[in-house]
Amino acid sequence: MTAETAQTAPVTVRAARTxxxxxxxxxxxPYVRRRILxxxxxxxxxEAVQExxxxxxxxxxVGCGALHVLWEDLGEVRTIxxxxxxxxxxxxxxxxxxxxxxxxxxxxxxxxxxxxxxEFFGRHGYVEVAEQVVSPEIFGELLRSIDGGVHEFLxxxxxxxxxxxxxxxxxxx
Length: 173
Ligand SMILES: CC(=O)SCCNC(=O)CCNC(=O)[C@H](O)C(C)(C)COP(=O)(O)OP(=O)(O)OC[C@H]1O[C@@H](n2cnc3c(N)ncnc32)[C@H](O)[C@@H]1OP(=O)(O)O
Prior knowledge:
This protein is of the alpha+beta class. It has helices at residues 3-8, 21-33, 42-47, 91-106, 118-123, 136-142, 148-153, 160-163; strands at residues 11-15, 52-57, 60-69, 74-82, 110-115, 127-128, 167-172.
């Protein structure tokens, strides 16, 4: 395939495999450097590989995104990113659709995200939420988690530097 046809080759969205993990890390790295996404160690990505979907074009990973379950009814969209040359082609929305389908299959009814991309998520049905979205009882249960993303969801003081300027958004599925 020539470079030109590779640009127009179809994009497939599918479940991530362990062999995709290094490419996923390379894809998210520029956004981590710009403090748009939280950096993830390779081991963390391998451990979470089942949470991820990837977008593949001509054998190359051009997008990734994850669904993390927080509670019985509640999940979080994490680490959704598209390679710069592929932005604006609908790949982000397709990955979000796939993650939302997974959420429905798991029995979730609400999805949370923490993001600078309020227009992208807004057009996908997410609305800004200021308040906590779980009861004090479930908040207490979630405090037992050692996951940094859960600490961000809970808006704990020690992770506030990571989340500065981000908007908390929620979608009812
Ligand atoms: C919870 C979190 O993970 S927060 C972190 C979010 N990630 C980042 O900030 C990393 C940097 N940003 C990115 O990687 C990307 O910009 C993303 C993931 C936010 C969006 O991915 P993209 O693939 O560019 O989005 P996508 O193309 O689906 O939609 C963007 C726009 O493209 C246009 N578009 C959508 N579908 C098509 C299509 N088929 N053809 C052409 N244009 C299209 C629309 O105008 C769309 O606008 P909308 O979002 O207002 O509806």
